Amino acid sequence: MAWNEPGNKGNDPWGNRGGNDQGPPDLDQVFRKLTGRFGGGNGGGISSGIIVGVLMLAIIAWALSGIYKIEEAERGVVLRFGQYHEQVGAGLGWKMTFVDQVYPVNVNNIRELPASGMMLTMDENVVAVQMKVQYRIVEPRAYLFNVTNPDESLKEAMDSALRYVIGHTVMDDILTTGREQVRQDTRTELENIIAPYGLGIQVVDVNLLPARPPEEVKDAFDDAIAAQEDEERFVREAEAYAKEVEPRARGQVQRMTQEANAYRDRVTLEAEGEVARFVQLLPEYQAAPTVTRDRLYLETMEKVYSSTSKVMIDTQGDGSMFYLPLDKIVGQGGSAPAPRVQAPAMNDTSSLPSSSFNNRRTATRNDSVRQGR
C-alpha cells in the first residue's frame, strides 16, 4: 500500500508518522542530520555551512554557464533534451545547462561551393568544366537537422545537375556562345533537385568558369574559337558601318526629294506665270498682231544675246571700221583700245570674221524689224 493512500499509517518520505502531514522538513535539519551521521559532534554546524556554500556556488556557476550570445548575422536553434524547442534571434539569452543546447547559424553570409570534372557532351566530346555555386542559409532548423551534411548534399546535387546539362549541350555551345544558357539551365536543374530534400538553403547564383577541351585537341578548338570571335567582330563592324551609312543615305534621299519637289514647284510656277503672261498678251496680240510679234521677238533675242559674246561694229565714211569686242573690254577693265580695220565692200563678207558677219546680219535684221519690214 502506498504511503499516501487512505488508512496507511506508515511513514511518508518526509518522516511523518501516523499520517500527520506536517510538510517537508527544513533543509538545515536535513543537513544537520547528514553531517551528524558522517561527522557527528560539534563539527556538524561547520560542515553543514560548507556544504551549503558549495551548493550555492554550484548553482551560481550553473546559472552563469547558461548565458549565451547570438550575433546580428546569426539565428539560434535551441534543443531541449535533444529535441527542437525554438529559434531565437540576435542578442543575449539564457539556457538551462545540461538541458538545453543552442546552435548558432549564420544566415547572412554568402557561401561558395565549387564543382568540376571531365564531362561528356551531347555530341560525344569530352570537356573539362568548372562551376561555383553561391548560396546562403534561409531556414536554420532545416539546414541543421533535415539532412546529415547539407553542404555535401548540395555539392552532389550540383555535380548531378551540371553533368545533366552538359550531356544535353554540344561542345561548341559550351565553349563559346552557349555558356550563359548552360549556366541558367544548371541553376534551374539544381534548384529542382534540392527542393524535395528541404536543405534550408537558397541558391544565390551559379558561375560557370571558362570550359576547356582536352589537351590533345586544345589547339584545334582554340582556332575554332578564334574564328568565331572574328566572325562576331566582323558582324559588329558591319552593323556599325550600316548604322553609319544608313542615316547618311536617308539624308541624301530626303535632300534629293526636297530638291525635286522644289524644282517641280519652280517649273510649275514658271509655267503658270508664262501661261498668265500669254493670257495677258492675247488681247494685245489680237489688237496689234505685228507689233506684238515683233516685241516678243526682240525680248527673245535680248535673252539669247545676254548670254553670248558681244561685238560692236561701226563703219565710217572713210572706209575704216571700229571693231569692239565688248566681252574682252569688260574683262580687261575697259582699257583695251578699239582696233581699226579696213572696211571691205558691203557685198564682200569673206574678209570679215564670222562673228562680225553674224552680228552685222543680226544688226541689219534688227534695223529691218524696227522699220517695220
From TrEMBL:
Pfam families: Band_7, HflK_N
Residue span of region Disordered: 1-26, 334-373
UniProt-listed GO biological process terms: proteolysis
Family stated for the protein in its record: Belongs to the band 7/mec-2 family. HflK subfamily.
Keywords: Hydrolase, Membrane, Protease, Transmembrane, Transmembrane helix
Annotated InterPro entries: Band_7 (IPR001107), Band_7/SPFH_dom_sf (IPR036013), HflK (IPR010201), Membrane_HflK_N (IPR020980), Stomatin_HflK_fam (IPR001972)
Domain named Band: residues: 65-225
Protein name per Swiss-Prot or TrEMBL: Protein HflK
GO molecular function: peptidase activity
Membrane topology of the entry: Single-pass membrane protein
Record GO cellular component, one term: membrane
Transmembrane segments: 46-65
SMART domains for this protein: PHB
Amino acid composition bias (Polar residues), ranges on this chain: 347-361
Compartment list: Membrane
Subunit text: HflC and HflK may interact to form a multimeric complex.
Tagged with keyword Glycosyltransferase: no
Physiological role: HflC and HflK could encode or regulate a protease.
